[in-house]
Design goal:
Elements lengths: L9 H21 L6 H27 L6 H14 L6 E3 L1 H12 L1 E4 L2 E4 L6 E6 L4 H5 L6 E7 L11 E2 L5 H8 L6 E7 L7 E6 L1 E4 L3 E7 L2 E6 L6 H16 L5 E5 L8 H8 L7 E6 L6 E5 L11 E5 L6 H11 L4 E4 L7 E7 L5 E10 L15 E2 L27 H4 L27 H14 L7 H11 L2 H10 L21
Parallel strand pairs: 11-12, 12-15, 15-16, 16-19
Antiparallel strand pairs: 1-18, 2-9, 3-4, 4-5, 5-6, 5-7, 7-8, 10-11, 13-14, 13-18, 17-18
């Protein structure tokens, strides 16, 4: 194997340990009077561990059967430091750190597909991003990527392609990203294919549009937020204005769609929720010290009209999405509809490091305004509505990975030390809902949907959750009933089936 240039030689290793040792010794001397025996012991142990690490690295460098790339070895060691903490803390090599920064800015160079990965499974395409190389090549949602074949094959590979079965999501993303104008081949497995098909795709600049909007019908808007990037709050305001212009009147109802939104920037989640909240806490974070609590409050001078509002969530709604859904739910500003969310209730701080690398470190847990931790359990919708039965439409049923499935995740017990006991969301009685909005829908409608799909050849499952959300907006009378139920009264269902005017009271 070809020997790569050394990153850190034996003299430098010794110097590193010496500097750290002197630093620790100096610290111990200056704080000797204040330190307890436990603290002194901890410092001594830290020095011994660093010395042991340097010794192992030097033994590998001198005696391993093949020459080693010391830089790669050090990178692996740094990744190992974070591995046993939690699934969201990680050391990022420069390429991965650059990719993360590009994503938060709203563009990157690559193929333009959102992917997911379950243990010992092929990578699955969640969806191709509109007008990107992947979409133009014909890549479809639910395609499985069985192998990736980069133009420049890594030296350690034994073949030009590599199976994605044992590949991590980070590895796959890193391989598919690349400079505009370069190409990469991927093998796709699809239900209608006899064998995997090879697609060679030219990389391009992919612009991420985190917010989309449309009028579902006169007066009712559908605002889709795909992720929380640097401009998401500003884009939400702009799209709301566009919807009102297109409607030629104030909106009478809004569906805020956070399904499959993996999260993003905390400040943007606060800014988005702030669109519909006049005051109060949006979310608060709590570090390991009681003094490390930070409250994020609504500050909008101008708040969107108090039209009826439904927030759509599913198992793919995580982190920042859960912050927005939880805030609007706790303030009684919106009905949350869908299925329980991912359950990521932790906050990561990203630290830039020398050499272009980065450290993503879990530094706090977050809590909804009512003091609920959603860590591991997620946001429970006010109205649970599952998506259309994909099995009945010819698609294999699948189980989505959630926070509780990740190795090393924080549990509810970990979060309970700072969590305020809060009542669970109220389950809305069926008697307070229009007939078609009752969980499970209408069996006859489901059969009719499946029959129509088989006849027309359109095997895309109907968007049951969005349909139910529109039905709820059209039968908004029960929202006020639910609010009164939460506040302790005993509401009677009303008869009106029209969209409510702007008469919502914030809790």
């Amino acid at each position: 194997m070809k020997r790569n240039s050394s990153f850190l030689g034996p003299f430098a290793l010794g110097l590193m340990v010496a500097i750290v040792g002197f630093s620790l010794a100096g610290q111990a001397a200056s704080e000797a009077e204040a330190q307890s025996d436990d603290a002194r012991s901890s410092n001594a142990q830290r020095y011994e561990d660093l010395s042991l690490f340097a010794s192992i690295l030097e033994l590998v460098r001198m005696n391993y059967v093949e020459d080693v790339d010391e830089h790669a070895l050090m990178m692996s060691a740094m990744r190992g430091i974070l591995e046993d903490l939690d699934p969201h803390s990680a050391f990022m090599i420069p390429d991965v750190y650059d990719d993360m920064q590009e994503e938060t800015k709203g563009e990157f160079q690559g193929l333009g597909i959102e992917i997911s990965k379950e243990p010992r499974q092929f990578i699955e395409v969640v969806s191709p991003i509109d007008d990107t190389p992947a979409a133009r090549a014909g890549i479809k949602a639910r395609d499985r990527i069985s192998a990736i074949c980069p133009t420049e094959v890594p030296e350690e590979w034994t073949s030009p392609c590599r199976s994605t079965l044992e590949m991590t999501l980070f590895e796959a993303v890193s391989l598919m990203r690349g400079v505009k104008g370069t190409s990469i081949a991927i093998f796709i497995i699809r239900a209608d294919m006899v064998e995997p098909r090879r697609y060679e795709i030219m990389r391009d600049t992919v612009k991420l549009n985190s917010v989309r909007a449309e009028l579902i019908e006169p007066g009712i808007g559908h605002l889709r937020v795909n992720s929380f990037q640097e401009r998401t709050g500003r884009d939400v305001r702009a799209r709301l204005s566009d919807l009102e212009s297109e409607n030629d009147a104030p909106l009478e109802g809004l569906v805020l769609d956070l399904r499959d939104n993996p999260g993003g920037l905390l400040n943007q989640a606060v800014e988005v929720a702030d669109q519909w909240l006049r005051d109060g806490i949006v979310v608060y974070t709590q570090g390991r010290d009681e003094r490390q609590r930070i409250d994020y409050k609504a500050t909008s001078a101008i708040v969107a009209d108090d039209y009826p509002m439904v927030v759509l969530v599913n198992e793919g709604s995580a982190s920042a999405s859960e912050i927005v859904a939880g805030a609007l739910q706790d303030h009684h500003r919106a009905i949350v509809l869908g299925v329980p969310t991912f359950g990521k209730g932790s906050v990561q701080t990203v630290y830039p490091l020398d050499g272009g690398a980065g450290l993503r470190l879990t530094t706090a847990l977050y809590y909804t305004p009512a003091g609920r931790s959603i860590q591991e359990v997620g946001i429970t919708p006010d109205l649970e509505v599952s998506q259309a039965d994909e099995g009945a439409m010819g698609f294999p049923a699948r189980r989505r990975v959630r926070e509780r499935d990740l190795d090393g995740h924080f549990t509810q017990e970990d979060a309970s030390g700072h969590s305020i006991s809060a009542p669970p969301p109220v389950r809305i009685p069926d008697s307070m809902l229009p007939p078609d909005a009752v969980e499970g829908g209408n069996d006859a409608d489901s059969e009719r949907d499946a029959e129509e799909a088989a006849t027309t050849g359109d095997m895309t499952p109907p968007d049951t959750q969005l349909l139910r959300a529109v039905e709820v907006l059209k039968s908004w009378n029960y929202f006020e009933d639910m609010r009164r139920l939460r506040e302790g009264s005993n509401p009677e269902p009303s008869d009106s089936q029209s969209v409510a005017s702007s008469n919502h009271e914030e809790g």
